[in-house]
Amino acid sequence: MDCSALVLNKLLLDKDVDIWSKLKVNFLDTAYTALYSAISRYYDKYSEIPSFDELALSIREGNTSQLLISIKAIDEPDIEGHVALDALIDQY
Fold first, then answer.
1. How far apart are CA 46 and CA 71, in angstroms?
2. Residue 34: count of CB within 10 angstroms of its CB
3. Which site in 15, 17, 58, 74 is 20 to 30 Å from 84, CA atoms measured?
4. For residues 68 and 59, is the Cβ–Cβ distance under 8 A?
5. DSSP of 13-24, one letter per residue?
Protein backbone atom coordinates (compact mmCIF):
# COMPACT_ATOMS: atom_id res chain seq x y z
CA MET A 1 0.00 0.00 0.00
CA ASP A 2 1.25 3.47 -0.90
CA CYS A 3 0.87 5.45 2.34
CA SER A 4 1.55 8.77 0.60
CA ALA A 5 -1.30 8.24 -1.84
CA LEU A 6 -3.63 6.99 0.89
CA VAL A 7 -2.98 10.00 3.13
CA LEU A 8 -3.58 12.42 0.27
CA ASN A 9 -6.77 10.55 -0.64
CA LYS A 10 -8.10 10.77 2.91
CA LEU A 11 -7.03 14.42 3.19
CA LEU A 12 -8.97 15.41 0.09
CA LEU A 13 -11.98 13.19 0.81
CA ASP A 14 -12.41 14.27 4.41
CA LYS A 15 -11.05 17.81 3.96
CA ASP A 16 -9.37 17.23 7.33
CA VAL A 17 -7.44 20.27 8.55
CA ASP A 18 -5.87 18.25 11.38
CA ILE A 19 -4.23 15.92 8.87
CA TRP A 20 -3.11 18.90 6.79
CA SER A 21 -1.55 20.59 9.81
CA LYS A 22 0.56 17.50 10.57
CA LEU A 23 1.42 16.52 7.00
CA LYS A 24 4.80 17.69 5.73
CA VAL A 25 6.05 17.42 2.17
CA ASN A 26 9.12 15.51 3.41
CA PHE A 27 6.88 12.68 4.63
CA LEU A 28 5.58 12.05 1.10
CA ASP A 29 7.20 10.16 -1.72
CA THR A 30 8.83 12.66 -4.08
CA ALA A 31 6.32 11.76 -6.80
CA TYR A 32 3.67 13.63 -4.79
CA THR A 33 5.58 16.88 -4.30
CA ALA A 34 3.75 18.76 -7.08
CA LEU A 35 0.38 17.56 -5.78
CA TYR A 36 1.26 18.64 -2.24
CA SER A 37 2.27 22.05 -3.62
CA ALA A 38 -1.05 22.38 -5.46
CA ILE A 39 -2.97 21.60 -2.27
CA SER A 40 -0.82 24.08 -0.36
CA ARG A 41 -1.44 26.86 -2.89
CA TYR A 42 -5.18 26.19 -2.78
CA TYR A 43 -5.18 26.17 1.02
CA ASP A 44 -3.21 29.42 1.18
CA LYS A 45 -5.61 31.11 -1.22
CA TYR A 46 -8.96 29.84 0.13
CA SER A 47 -8.11 28.77 3.71
CA GLU A 48 -9.68 25.36 3.20
CA ILE A 49 -8.71 21.93 1.95
CA PRO A 50 -9.84 21.45 -1.65
CA SER A 51 -12.04 18.64 -2.86
CA PHE A 52 -10.77 16.47 -5.69
CA ASP A 53 -12.81 18.49 -8.20
CA GLU A 54 -11.69 21.86 -6.85
CA LEU A 55 -8.07 20.77 -6.96
CA ALA A 56 -8.42 19.35 -10.48
CA LEU A 57 -9.55 22.79 -11.70
CA SER A 58 -6.45 24.44 -10.26
CA ILE A 59 -3.89 21.97 -11.67
CA ARG A 60 -2.38 22.74 -15.04
CA GLU A 61 0.28 20.03 -15.30
CA GLY A 62 -0.68 16.79 -17.04
CA ASN A 63 1.35 14.49 -14.78
CA THR A 64 -0.04 16.03 -11.60
CA SER A 65 -3.56 15.82 -12.99
CA GLN A 66 -3.08 12.11 -13.76
CA LEU A 67 -1.67 11.54 -10.29
CA LEU A 68 -4.73 13.20 -8.76
CA ILE A 69 -7.00 10.89 -10.77
CA SER A 70 -5.14 7.82 -9.52
CA ILE A 71 -5.31 9.02 -5.91
CA LYS A 72 -9.04 9.65 -6.23
CA ALA A 73 -9.52 6.02 -7.33
CA ILE A 74 -8.12 4.62 -4.05
CA ASP A 75 -10.82 2.83 -2.08
CA GLU A 76 -9.78 2.02 1.48
CA PRO A 77 -12.90 2.79 3.57
CA ASP A 78 -11.67 0.90 6.65
CA ILE A 79 -8.57 3.04 7.14
CA GLU A 80 -8.97 6.41 8.84
CA GLY A 81 -6.93 9.38 7.71
CA HIS A 82 -5.13 9.79 11.03
CA VAL A 83 -4.10 6.13 11.03
CA ALA A 84 -2.75 6.46 7.50
CA LEU A 85 -0.86 9.61 8.48
CA ASP A 86 0.68 7.87 11.49
CA ALA A 87 1.81 5.02 9.23
CA LEU A 88 3.30 7.51 6.79
CA ILE A 89 5.18 9.30 9.57
CA ASP A 90 6.46 5.95 10.88
CA GLN A 91 7.69 5.11 7.36
CA TYR A 92 9.52 8.44 7.18
1. 22
2. 16
3. 58
4. yes
5. HHT-HHHHHH--
Helix/strand/coil percentages in the chain, nearest 5: 75, 0, 25
Over 35-52, what HEC string results?
HHHHHHHHHHHHCCCCCH
Predicted confidence (pLDDT) per residue in 6-16, tens digit: 999 999 999 99
- Residues 41 and 33: their CA atoms lie apart, in Å, by 12
CA-CA distance, 90 to 4, in Å (whole number)? 12
What is the phi-psi region of residue 74: left when phi exceeds 0, alpha when psi lies from -120 to 50, beta otherwise? beta
Report the alpha-carbon distance of residue 91 to residue 12 in Å, rounded: 21
